[in-house]
Amino acid sequence: MSLIDLKKGHGNNRKKKISVDEFIEQANLYAQGKDATPDKSRHIKKGRKYKNATFTLSPDHIKQLDALSKQSGLSKSYILRLLIAELAEGDDLTIDSLLDHINAK
Q1: Within 10 Å of residue 22's Cβ, how many Cβ atoms?
Q2: pLDDT at 97 > cutoff 80
């Protein structure tokens, strides 16, 4: 053993905690000769419906979004989701008129 082996790691090597039921299920699978590795999908946080995304906005758009958020009391992400849903449900005529309005400015 070298001194490098004694160095404290960053915690990446620690195994994740599992529930008693998962441990028993893995033990049963191992006893049956089946793959006992935990299913990766179980480690996804339950209840999380959204995935982080990065957008590039101009400083003016950021100010407008911030003002909308403060005025409405809604989060910026929620406002963007509402606008996306509204545009997705709209017909082509609505989207075209919105684009025409934006291009006219």
Answers
A1: 13
A2: yes
Q: Which residues contact 27 (CB under 8 A, 6 or more apart)?
A: 36
Per-residue pLDDT reduced to its tens digit, 3-23: 666 666 665 666 778 888 888
DSSP per-residue codes, 41-93: GGGSPTT-----------HHHHHHHHHHHHHH---HHHHHHHHHHHHHHS-HH
Q: Are 16 and 43 in contact (CB under 8 A)?
A: yes
Which residues in 48-64 are b (16+ Cβ under 10 Å) and which e? Answer: eeeeeeeeeeeeeeeee
* Tens of pLDDT, residues 59-86: 999 999 999 999 999 999 999 999 888 8
The 8-class DSSP code of residue 38 comes to P
- Locate tokens 């609505």: which residue? 94
Structure tokens that stand for 37 in this block: 């590795």
